[in-house]
Design goal:
The chain has helices at residues 17-27, 36-44, 51-59, 66-79, 87-98, 108-113, 116-131, 137-148, 152-166, 173-185, 192-203, 209-218, 222-234, 243-255, 259-271, 279-294, 298-310, 319-330, 335-347, 351-363, 367-379, 386-396, 407-417, 430-442, 446-463, 466-481, 487-501, 512-519. The chain is mainly α and 520 residues long. 35% of the residues are buried.
Length: 520
C-alpha cells in the first residue's frame, strides 16, 4: 500500500519550507515574480535549481537535501561570530515580498528589524510554530520574546534554522497520528487503548451514554474518569455541583497524570470547594497544581501565579514570581493570564502597559478584557475612541454565557442605546437599552438595577400604573439586597425620589406615599 504524504505547503500546522514559501508568495506585492525556485536560490545562495526538486521539498515528499542542510549548518556556525551572516539571505526574501531590490543599506540588521515585511513574516512563522506538534514550548516562547523585543532578524534566523535543519520531512499521515498520540500520552500512564475506547464511546454517543461512560470510568479509563468528574463539578448530572463526587473521579484520572484533572483538584482545594482551606489542604492543592503545571497545563500556571500574587499558603506573596507564571501561561495564549498581568500593571499605575495586556486578551475573545478595553477607549484613559469602545463592548457579548462580562450590557445600554451616540447609534433605542439593563441586572450588575429604578420611577409619574409601582418596589428590594449597597446608594435613591417630587408641573400627589415607602 502506497504511503500518503502530509502536505507541508497548504496548511498552518507545519513550520516547513513549503509553508515559508507560501507565506512569502501570499505576502508579495508581485505574486507572479515570487517563484519557489527564486526563493530557494535566495535562501541557499544558488544560481539555479530545478523547479521539480523545489516543489518536492515544498510539498514534503522529499527531505531537504544534505548539501543544502550543510550550507545552512555552516552559516549557523559562522553566525555565532558574525551576526550579519544571514542578513543578505533575509533581505533577499524581503526584496521578493516588497517587489523591489533594496540597495545601499548601511545597517542590514537594523533594516530587517524595521521592515514591516520582515515583522509580518516572523509573526506568521511564529503562528505556524505554535501549531507544529514537533516544536516544544521553549522554542515558541523564545520566538515570542524576540518579536516582543523587536529582534526580528534574530527571530527569523531561529525560524529558518528550524525549517532547514530540524523540521522532520517527509511525514506520512499514519506516522503523524502516531506521533500526536505519543506526544499527548508521553508523560502519563494512560495507554493509547484508553484513548481509543473513550473516543469510540464519545463518537458513538447513544441513550446509554452516561451509563457506558461511568462503566468505562470504573474500569479505570482516565478520560472517562475526567469526564464524569467534570460533569459532577459543573452539576450536569443533578443540576447542582457535587464537588466530593467530582474529586473521586478526578483523582483517579490525576493519578494517571491527566493534566487537567490535577488542575481541577488543585483549583477545588485552593478555592475551598473541597476541604476547609486549612494549610494542609492548601498545600495539597498546590501539589496537584505543580503536577498539572509540569504536565503542561497553562491554567495551572495561571493559578500558581494567583497564589504568588495573593500569598496563598504554602506560597508567600511575590509579584515577580506571579508575573513569571502569568507570562508562561500568556505565552500559550491563555487570556486570563494577560488579564492578571494587566491588573498588576494597572495597580502600579502603568495604564499604558496594562492596556497592552488587556488588548491582547480582548483580541483573544475574553469577555472581561473586551469590556475593559471598551472602558479604556470610552473614558479616554489611553485614547478617546467611542467607535472602538462600542466595538469591544459588542465583542464582549460574543462569549459563552458562563464567562460573559455582563457589564458590557450595562455600558452599551447607558452610553449608546438609551440616548444614541453620534454616528455609532444614531438614534436612541430605548427598548434595546432596557433589555440590556435587564440582562445586566439579572446577572448582578447593581448599576443596571439603579438605572432601571430611575427609568421606572420617572415612568410612573406619567402613567400612574400599579404594575410599574410593583416593579419599582421589586427593584428597590434588589438594590437594598445587593452586596454593594451602601449609604451613598441609599442617598442616591432618596435623591431621585425627592427630585421627581419637586417637579411642580406634574401632579405628584398620588405618588407621595410611594415616595415615602421607597425612601424608608
Amino acid at each position: 500500500m502506497q504511503k500518503k504524504y502530509i502536505k507541508m505547503n497548504n496548511n498552518d500546522e507545519h513550520l516547513s519550507i513549503g509553508n515559508l514559501f507560501r507565506i512569502i508568495k501570499d505576502s508579495s506585492k508581485n505574486k507572479m515574480s515570487a517563484l519557489q525556485s527564486e526563493m530557494f536560490c535566495t535562501l541557499f545562495e544558488l544560481e539555479y535549481i530545478n523547479d521539480t526538486t523545489v516543489n518536492n521539498y515544498c510539498v514534503g515528499c522529499r527531505s531537504i537535501g544534505a548539501e543544502y542542510k550543510q550550507t545552512f549548518l555552516n552559516k549557523e556556525i559562522r553566525y555565532e561570530k558574525e551576526k550579519q551572516e544571514f542578513a543578505d539571505n533575509i533581505i533577499g526574501l524581503i526584496n521578493i515580498m516588497d517587489g523591489v531590490v533594496h540597495k545601499d543599506i548601511k545597517d542590514k540588521i537594523q533594516f530587517i528589524n524595521e521592515s514591516d515585511s520582515a515583522l509580518s513574516l516572523s509573526k506568521k512563522l511564529y503562528n505556524l510554530a505554535k501549531n507544529d506538534k514537533q516544536i516544544i514550548n521553549e522554542f515558541t516562547n523564545r520566538l515570542y520574546q524576540l518579536i516582543n523585543d523587536n529582534k526580528i532578524y534574530d527571530c527569523l534566523i531561529e525560524e529558518l534554522i528550524f525549517i532547514v535543519l530540524h523540521k522532520k520531512q517527509p511525514i506520512y499521515e499514519d506516522e503523524l497520528k502516531k506521533e500526536v498520540f505519543e506526544t499527548v500520552l508521553n508523560d502519563t500512564s494512560i495507554s493509547s487503548v484508553d484513548l481509543q475506547e473513550y473516543l469510540s464511546l464519545k463518537l458513538r454517543e447513544g441513550i446509554n451514554f452516561d451509563y457506558s461512560m461511568k462503566k468505562l470510568a470504573i474500569e479505570g479509563n482516565a478520560y472517562a474518569n475526567f469526564e464524569i468528574g467534570s460533569n459532577e463539578y459543573y452539576g450536569y448530572f443533578t443540576g447542582n455541583p457535587r464537588y466530593d463526587e467530582a474529586f473521586k473521579y478526578l483523582d483517579k484520572a490525576a493519578s494517571m497524570n491527566h493534566a487537567s484533572a490535577n488542575y481541577m483538584i488543585g483549583n477545588m482545594f485552593v478555592r475551598g470547594l473541597i476541604g476547609g482551606k486549612s494549610n494542609e489542604e492548601l498545600e495539597r492543592g498546590y501539589e496537584y497544581l505543580v503536577k498539572s503545571y509540569n504536565l503542561g497545563n497553562v491554567a495551572a500556571s495561571n493559578l500558581i501565579g494567583n497564589m504568588y500574587r495573593d500569598g496563598i499558603y504554602p506560597l508567600k506573596k511575590d509579584l515577580d514570581k506571579a508575573r513569571e507564571y502569568y507570562n508562561k501561561a500568556a505565552n500559550n495564549d491563555y487570556a486570563y493570564a494577560y488579564n492578571n498581568l494587566g491588573k498588576i500593571e494597572e495597580n502600579n499605575g502603568n495604564t499604558s502597559e496594562a492596556f497592552k495586556y488587556y488588548l491582547i486578551s480582548a483580541d483573544l475573545g475574553e469577555s472581561w478584557a473586551c469590556n475593559k478595553v471598551g472602558e479604556y477607549y470610552r473614558t479616554g484613559i489611553i485614547e478617546k475612541n467611542m467607535k472602538k469602545a462600542f466595538y469591544y463592548y459588542q465583542k464582549a457579548l460574543e462569549s459563552n454565557y458562563k464567562v460573559l462580562c455582563n457589564y458590557a450590557y450595562y455600558n452599551l445600554a447607558k452610553y449608546f442605546y438609551m440616548d444614541g451616540y453620534m454616528d455609532i447609534v444614531l438614534e436612541g433605542d430605548v427598548d434595546k437599552a432596557l433589555a440590556y439593563y435587564q440582562k445586566a441586572s439579572e446577572n448582578g450588575i447593581l448599576e443596571a438595577t439603579i438605572e432601571l429604578f430611575k427609568y421606572n420611577t420617572k415612568k410612573y409619574l406619567f402613567f400612574r400604573d400599579n404594575d410599574i409601582k410593583k416593579e419599582i418596589y421589586r427593584l428597590k428590594k434588589i438594590i437594598e439586597g445587593h452586596p454593594k449597597y451602601n449609604k451613598d446608594i441609599c442617598d442616591e435613591v432618596e435623591t431621585i425620589i425627592n427630585e421627581l417630587m419637586e417637579k411642580r408641573e406634574i401632579n405628584i400627589e398620588p405618588i407621595e406615599d410611594l415616595a415615602w415607602e421607597i425612601i424608608e
